[in-house]
Amino acid sequence: MSFEKLGLSKPLLKAIKDQGYTEPSPIQAKAIPIILDKKDVLAAAQTGTGKTAGFTLPMLELLSQNNNKVGKLQVKALILTPTRELAAQVYENVKIYSRYTPFTSAVVFGGVGINPQKAAIKKGVDILVATPGRMLDLVEQKALDLRAVEFFVLDEADRMLDMGFIHDIKKVLKIVPKQKQNLLFSATFSKSIKELAAQLLNDPILVEVAKPNQTNHKVQHIVHKVNKKDKNDLLSHIITEQKMKQVLIFTRTKHGANKLCKKLEFDGIPSAAIHGNKSQGARTKALADFKAGAIQTLVATDIAARGIDIADLPYVINYELPNVPEDYVHRIGRTGRAGKEGQAISLVCIDEDEYLSDIEKLLKTQIKQIDVDGYDVDPTIKAEPKKKTGGKGGRSGNRSGRNNPKGDRNSSNNRRDNNSNRRRNRSSRS
Length: 430
Prior knowledge:
Elements: H1 10-18, H2 26-36, E1 41-44, H3 51-66, E2 77-80, H4 84-97, E3 105-108, H5 115-123, E4 127-130, H6 132-140, E5 151-154, H7 157-162, H8 166-175, E6 181-186, H9 191-200, E7 205-208, E8 219-225, H10 231-241, E9 247-250, H11 254-266, E10 271-274, H12 280-292, E11 297-300, E12 315-318, H13 325-332, E13 342-348, H14 353-363, E14 368-369, H15 412-417, H16 421-427
Parallel strand pairs: 1-6, 1-7, 2-4, 2-5, 3-4, 5-6, 8-13, 8-14, 9-11, 9-12, 10-11, 12-13
Helix pairs in contact: 2-3, 3-4, 6-16
């Protein structure tokens, strides 16, 4: 199938051609006709499958057909994302595909000054990409009006719920019109996602291109069992021995990311850390340097699992396994994108055996384990007892705090950007 057969107009086809695309991805081929038919959509798609274009292209097509005038400070389409990095990434895609249309777009998120964002909206914006907290701040300050929204998109909805945005989403639903087209995209399905879909969507069409919670089959999964104290050395050994040029490494905590970054630098491996305590400027620079090859490794918490889009990223390494198995899917979704091959390596100590078991149950497969010479596991070491977190305890309790992604919502920059505690608390969530 070609894009021409999907019913897209010439300006959009020209923008697609500029990008070198000739055939739609499976999610695009399925979702675009349904959205053009003005149906609500509940879509499950692996990361890196082109889902942003899957909702942006038909949205632009329908906007072109309607082209209704809106009032001052009003927008026609609202796209919500959980993180700043993902918001910026989606915004770039919107700009690319709308370049030959009359529609304007903007992106708003916390961690940066709010006044330039107000000024951009005041000039007139058709499509707004936003994180929830900053967007609600703008509404509260009467710098944004959502009463004319025709399209409402929740991107990476599962991550949004994990990060505790459900209350903000409910506030948004009370503000936007009831009569609109709703699109919910999620890499994983859970009970919470289905409950949210029931509140948001009207008689939705389910779009799936792969079973939910599954990974790209072209990604090779490997586990190296290792003593906890040997993880740092094994990581440097693997990167050096395999001559890895571009590696995304995940830790569970911000402190752990900083500490590991320093160790890699000490070992002669250029590195940078990206997490919620970093300023937006530092995060943007680290990501740009990593994409440009100026640094060899990027050490990140799960905040980066949804906002890094590198077409040919060859390696993802789990220095620490995530507490929640679905996060493994999101992490390794950074490699093997757009049908490319990739490698996902996990360094697993005895304390993480239970996490590994949960991941394998989710994936319905046993991950291949490979021993590394010189890094034999000491069989006498026992697992440390799990610390309980919240009422449920263990892995299942305190999902949004497993590596404190809310740190992205409480940076010092956010605090400086807001003048009241009420606005600060909301803006800090984005």
